[in-house]
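hey so i finally got around to running the thing on that chain from the lab meeting. sorry it took forever, my laptop kept dying and i had to restart like 3 times. anyway pasting the input first so we r on the same page abt which one it is
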Amino acid sequence: LQFLYFIGHMISIKAPSTGEVQSVCKVGDVVRKGAPLAVLSLMKMELRVEAKDNYRVEAVKCKVGSVVKERSEMFKVTVVEAPAEEEAVAADVPFKDRVERLKARRAKVKAMGGEERVQRQRELGKLNARERVTLFADKESFREVGGAAGSITHSVPMKANTKK
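ok and heres what got predicted. didnt touch it at all, straight out
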């Protein structure tokens, strides 16, 4: 079933699936047909919520990092005429958001849990991971790849089970 919308008609855009919002356009953005309004993450897969027509975003009902449920309202948009080149949101705007998040994640990884955790390792007489690698790898022979892949978790070690 396909609906026809006329210029000036306001419609609601709903989430096609449950997922975490990775990027989202802003109120006032003019989005060309086929460009992403948002990007959702579903079990390590990416789902683009694309504009089915040329839209002006009137309201955003989700934010980056939030989880949207399938069929929940994400946007209120108005159908508009094809926007001028300089007015349209480029399809790579969400990509720029992802690049910024990746840079922040890499900085967090490079900090190895923060100065407090690194200092705690030193107080225990231990080297951090990068220092240990330099001990057994030739200079300039090691290059860290994928340091920001996966998830970053730091857990507190469990106390040993002491049975009497």
